[in-house]
Structure formats: structure tokens, C-alpha cells
Amino acid sequence: MDTTYAAHIREDQTIQSVREHLEGTAELAKGFADSFDSGDYACLCGLLHDIGKYSEKFQKRLLEGGGMVDHSTAGAAEVNGRLRAIGFLLAYCVAGHHAGLPDGGSAADTPDEPTLCGRLKRKLEPYVAFEHEIAPQILLPEPSLPIRPLGKAGFSVSFYIRMLFSCLVDGDFLDTERFMSGDTDRGGGEGIDALNQKLDGYIKGFANPEKEIDKRRTEILNRCIEKAEREKGLYTLTVPTGGGKTISSLAFALKHAKKHKMDRVIYVIPYNSIIEQNAAVFKDILGEENVLEHHSGFSYDDTSELLINKRLATENWEVPVVVTTTVQFFESLFASRPSKCRKLHNMTNSVIIFDEAQMLPTQYLLPCIRAISELVYNYKSTAVLCSATQPALSGLFPKELSARELCDHAEELFRFFKRTKIVPVGELADTELAKRLNLEKQVLCIVNTRMQAQRLFKLLLREGSFHLSTLMYPLHRKQTLRIIRERLKDGLPCRVVSTSLIEAGVDVDFPVVYRAEAGLDSEIQAAGRCNRERKNAESPVYIFKPAEEYQKHMPAMMKRPMEVARSVAKQFDDIASNEAIFAYFTRLYRFEGTGLDTKSIVESFENGLVKGMSFPFARIASEFNLIENSTYSVVIPHTDEARELVTRLREGERSRKLMRSVQQYAVSVYAGSYSVLLSSGSIEALDEELAVLTDLDKYSEKTGLDANADYGAAVFS
């Protein structure tokens, strides 16, 4: 009688066989990798990834309980033995499909070491049933990589491994989900053609503008639509603040995706607040079911077969429009954990819009540039770098890629949209700054830290004063911004103190703006929140130096741009001119030098090829942190909906749909603040990544969460 070898067991004791799981995963992985001509390799990985589950020891552990069993190394050894050099590359994917992509290691590594070289030396539990259930299905593909190498080729090869890994782990997750719950939550939303029809209906309203400013915005929109017919590649979109960049870039993306039969549009945005605003605009135009708003990553990994419900909650971006953060996008591209990597294959054959491109993290700029280059050059995607202050990146891309501008006559457009005058006012203490703000009827003040935002707000007049920072959960910020816009429109008192989250892409229009010293791009972006609709001929934007107590905690990554901005301001009368902006970024990048890749990430991967294809995936994943301090999500149960979500979380429920809802009520805090809140009994830890606020006095309707140990670096806002 045939023996059924179990891969998974449902709560009702129904068994999914190993063969069923391997074949299901292989089919899904192949479909994903076909988008970059690698379906056969992904299929092979899928067929082999869990063959270690054929061992008696694993079966006993799954059916009767017991200690951990290594079931991943068997498949890695098998693929390494069946294909020459390519087999070693595929072995990374198979070996890492539970614990994460390993470092390659060296021939000297012992079997006890977690490197790929070490693991391939391990003595494995017999998995003999594999020979008659799976081995006959294996067709070995031709051993050649379907990519064109950039640079020294090492980075390109390591990136290819990561993409194959994504196909395997997402296929693994989805096949498991299909069996465990009967619902894979796949393929939500409509197709690109349907979204284009909805966009066309929306932009019909722009056909015959009357105001001159609206005519200019329509001109920019029409240029983007015309340029969407161009071939795939690397583009820039340089549009002055107030020029309608959000709709114009969406129009280019959807028209371009339709022209080239691309799968999705991905918006990469530096701040949560802009995600919330842009996602709301896109949902209004395209329908809520077509847009995923992905702020934070709940990146549960199943290393023990006991956390399946958690790992299936992680995000894979299988929707037509994704709006996500710079942190989420790039940390996923350099991650090793399966839960973080499962979305990567959905970046292929996509239009990727990098909104506010000047805010790409300087200390990781070269790795980010190389990742963008790979997506464009080898994975059939188009990338658009959008900004009003376009960074001088042309010399940083590989010679095979050059960016083309989508918006012609930028100089003339910038002259038309210029409506502010930047005025330096020296150092201002909080009391003096508050006095100035209280004298204004409507004013915006942008500071660099969450601590100063909360302190300064308390010094403002109570009537008509507002605070904005990411210490407020996303829905709270949305509600506050709605009130702010209404008061501005109605001419009511409206004094706002905010972190930098408001300065890029948030559609507000103040007659006066104050901005704490920052990089030149941040100062100009702040000016974009002033006199936006040209109600005045020219309005002031005051640049002030904050008190020393706020600067002493400031990281070097923020201090250097401030210093370069000061030097540029001494040379140019108009720091918002294209010449001044180009000089600023050129000096900043030259000043940084090796600081554009502080962890030598590109070099590490390039050198891996000549070191026997030994790539440091695990090491780089631990070092690539756009936010250097670890953060935790705290759910704020302030509404009936939030309380219902918390109840479901406490009961152990985890799903992508649930976590998408939870993030609307979550505040991210640094480890120091988390420890203080936990030790004081103010929060309850629900799992290793998530907590709920139990002391509601710690959350203010005005200023959000009281995280008094949190200094709030501006990258986090």
C-alpha cells in the first residue's frame, strides 16, 4: 500500500501530501519566474524545496511532535548535484526557503556552520521516497542565466538569485495557504486596461481649464501621457511643486503599462503621510479594491512549521497598484527573510514610480541605484524618478542606462510656479518661535524631530492649532489633515506644527511657512506647502536654526545635508534654482564619497562572484537598515473598528487582509520607547512584532502617542 508523506496538516486533520505541495509550489513558482524567462529554474526549485520532508524523522515530528528537523538542505544538495555551477546558485534559494537566504561561506566551512557551503556538507536524513514520487518529473534546464550582467556581474547574479528565491517562497506560501485555508487571497483588483478606462473618465474633467495655473498642470499631464508611448526604461519627471505631479505620474504609469502589457504600478514614497494622501487619491480614481496601501511590514517567518498562520499574513503585492515606502521597498530588495522577499518577483514587468527621488537614502544610495538598474535592465520594468528637486544621479547609474526626462521645458515651468521667497532668520528657541507662530492666522512650521513637534505644539494657542507626526496613527493623521484643509479653505485660524512628513507631496496651502534648517531639497519642498495656489504674488518661507538640544541627537546623515545647504546658500541668491539644486546634490554626493555605500554592499556582492559565487546574503540583510534603530508597531484601539481588530489579533488571527486593516491604527516606535512603554504596563505585546496600547491616557487626540524616550529621527517623521 502506498504511503502518504505529509507536508502540512490542517486543523481538521486533513493531510496535504509532500508530492501535492511540491507540485503546487513548482507550478506557482514557474508562473512567477516566467516574467523574467526563468520559469524552468523556479519550477526545479519548487519540486525540490521540501524533499527533506520525505524523511522518517520529519514525518514523525509533524505527526507526533518532536524537535526541529532540517528539511531544506536535502533539496539544496540535490539541485547542487544535478546542475553544474547554476546548481549552486539555485541551492541558495532552496536552502533558504524557511530560515532565509544564507551567506555562501567557503570550502573550509564545517557542516555545523549556517553558510551554504557548510550546510551542503551535512549528513542528511534519508529521503528515498523522493526517487519514485518526484525525481522522474525533473527536467533539467539549459545551464545559462537569462540576464545581462551590469558592472562586474556579481551584483547582477546575486540579484537574480534573490528574484528566483522570491518566486519560490511566494509559491510555497501561496500553495500552503491554499491548502490550509482554501483561500489564497490572490489576484485582487482589475486589469490595467480597466484602470486606464477609469483614469480616462477622471481626467476628462481637466479638458478645458480656465485658470492659468490649471492650464499649466494640464500641459504637464498631457506631456506625460504622450511620453507613455516610449519604450521601457529609466525616466525622470521634474515637475515644480504644485504642478500636479501625482496625477501626471499616475497617467504616465497606467498608459505606459497598457502600451507594454505590464502587470502593475508601484509607487515608492518616502513618508507614510504621502502614502496615505496618494493612496486616497488613487482609490478615488481607480477603486479601493485596486490599490494596496502598504506602510509597514509584519514580516513573520515560519522556521518551525508552527507559525504558518503568521507567515501567511505577510504581503506579496499581488494587486495592480501598490503604494509603499522607500524603507519597505529597498529593505525588501536586500532582505534575506522569506516573508520580506516574497513580493520581489512582483516588481518585475512593472512601472515603478520613485516619488520625491531626492530623498533616496544617501548612505545607501549606490545599492539603491544598482537595484533600480537591475529592475530596469534585466526584469522588464520601467523606473521613473520624480521630484521638484531632481538629484544629480546620472553619474551613479551604470553606463548601460541613461535617464530621459518626461516633462520638457522645465526651466520655464519652474519660473511660472515660483511663488515664495526663502528668508533665513537665524536661531530661534521654542518660546520665540511659538510667539511668531501665534501672531499668524494661518502658518505651517516644520521641524526635524518628533520631540520638538510635540513640545512646540504645547506652546501654541489652543484654538486653531494642530500637530502632525507619525506618533499619530495613519487614520488619525488623515482626519487631522482633513480638518486642516477645511480651515485653510474657510479662512479660519490654522497653525500647524509638523515633522517633515508634511513637506513632500502633501497637498496643503499656507500663506506663511517656517522650516527648521535641513537639506536644500527639504527646504524647497517645505516652500511647496506655501502659496501653492498663487493667492499672493510672493509669500515668505522662513528658515530657522533650531535650539542645540534638538541638534545634538541629530544623526550625521541629517547634519551633512544641512552643512552643504548652508554652503550653497552662500553662493546662490535663489537656492530654489535648478543650478543651485544641481550644485547641492553634486557637492553632497562628492562630500559623501564612500558614504554613498557605507556598508560596501555593492562591492560585497560584486566580489562574491570571484569568491566561488559566495554571496553574503544574510550579512547584508542584517546591515541594510534605512532606519538604523529597530522599530515596533503599537496598535491604538481608539475606535470600535480598532478594538475589533485587536480582539481578532489577541485570538491569534493573522492574514494579509487583517494586517492591512491593522496598519491604519498602528504607530511605529523605536526600541527604547517600546521598552519604556512595555515595562510601565502601557502596552501589551501581542507577538514579537506587534503590541497594543492598554493605557489610553498615553495617546492624545492632539499629539498622538506619548513616547517620551523617542527622539524621532527625521527619516522616520
Question: Please, could you describe this protein's structure?
Answer:
The protein has 717 residues and is α/β, with parallel strands linked by helices. Helix content is 43%, strand content 13%. It contains 29 helices and 21 strands. The chain has a 7-stranded parallel beta sheet, sandwiched between helices. Helix 16 (365-378) links the parallel strand 7 and strand 8. Helix 10 (212-227) packs parallel to helix 11. The radius of gyration is 26 Å and the shape is globular. The relative contact order is 0.10. Residues 302-307 and 709-717 have low confidence and may be disordered.
Please give the order of strands in the largest beta sheet: 5-6-4-7-8-3-9
| Number of separate helices | 29
Number of strands: 21
Mean pLDDT: 88
The amount of beta strand, in percent, is 5-15%
Structural class by secondary-structure content:
alpha/beta
Distance between the termini: 63 Å
Main beta-sheet strand count, sense and barrel state = 7 strands, parallel
Assembly state (oligomeric): single chain
- Molecular shape: globular
- Unreliable runs: 302-307, 709-717
Gyration radius from CA atoms, angstroms: 26 Å
State the helicity in percent bands.
Answer: 40-55%
Task: Outline the fold blueprint.
Blueprint: E1 6-9, E2 15-17, H1 18-33, H2 39-48, H3 56-64, H4 73-82, H5 85-95, H6 116-119, H7 130-133, H8 154-181, H9 192-203, H10 212-227, E3 234-238, H11 245-259, E4 264-269, H12 272-286, E5 291-294, H13 308-311, E6 321-325, H14 326-333, H15 338-341, E7 350-354, H16 365-378, E8 382-387, E9 404-405, H17 410-417, E10 420-427, H18 430-438, E11 442-446, H19 450-457, E12 465-468, H20 474-490, E13 494-498, E14 513-516, H21 520-527, E15 539-545, H22 548-551, H23 556-571, H24 578-592, H25 601-610, H26 617-623, E16 631-635, H27 640-650, H28 656-662, E17 666-670, H29 671-679, E18 683-685, E19 690-693, E20 699-700, E21 704-705
Parallel strand pairs: 3-8, 3-9, 4-6, 4-7, 5-6, 7-8, 10-15, 11-13, 11-14, 12-13, 14-15, 16-19
Antiparallel strand pairs: 1-2, 16-17, 18-19, 20-21
